[in-house]
Specification:
single chain; mainly alpha; Multidrug-efflux Transporter Regulator, Chain: A, Domain 2; 2 domains; 3 strands; rod-shaped
Length: 160
């Protein structure tokens, strides 16, 4: 108990508020509802903050929680903040614009790829045509050489 004659406040437990009016005894379920979290998360929070606990006559465990912890919404949960909607709408609009830019870039890249494939196909066809012409010319040259050899042979055979 606290000795009122000393004038000093009682020693505090870790995580306990200095003024009892600043804290409330609540169940894990009530804490979870107030914070918008699961009961399991509320139990973890109590362990982490080392808030004092006690069992009531109804066998329900209650925790002494600072009042500001009951009114505060969970940080990082915009859905619990009324001012979050405009921020979320703005972020969504920015993401939509970014997505549109990226889709346009992807479409342009796909068009460039299609053009490059078409150019490659035309180049392959030209290369094949050139190889075919070269093979034909080589056959003509070989035929001409063979005719020249045949003429020399026939001329030699005729005695000429």
């Amino acid at each position: 108990m606290h000795d009122m004659s000393s004038g000093s406040p009682p020693a505090r437990t870790a995580g306990q508020a200095s003024d009892p009016d600043e804290s409330r005894w609540v169940s894990y379920t009530d804490l979870a509802k107030a914070r918008g979290i699961s009961r399991l998360s509320a139990e973890r929070l109590v362990r982490k903050r080392k808030w004092p606990k006690r069992e009531g006559n109804d066998k329900t465990i209650r925790v002494l929680v600072p009042a500001h912890e009951l009114t505060a919404t969970a940080e990082g949960r915009p859905s619990n903040r009324p001012d979050a909607l405009p921020v979320l709408v703005q972020a969504l609009d920015m993401l939509k614009a970014q997505l549109a830019r990226e889709v346009a870039r992807a479409d342009a890249a796909e068009a460039q790829i299609a053009d490059a494939r078409s150019a490659a196909t035309r180049a392959e066809q030209r290369a094949q045509d050139a190889q075919d012409r070269l093979a034909e010319m080589e056959r003509e040259i070989a035929a001409e050489k063979a005719r020249g050899l045949w003429r020399r042979l026939t001329a030699t055979w005729r005695g000429g």
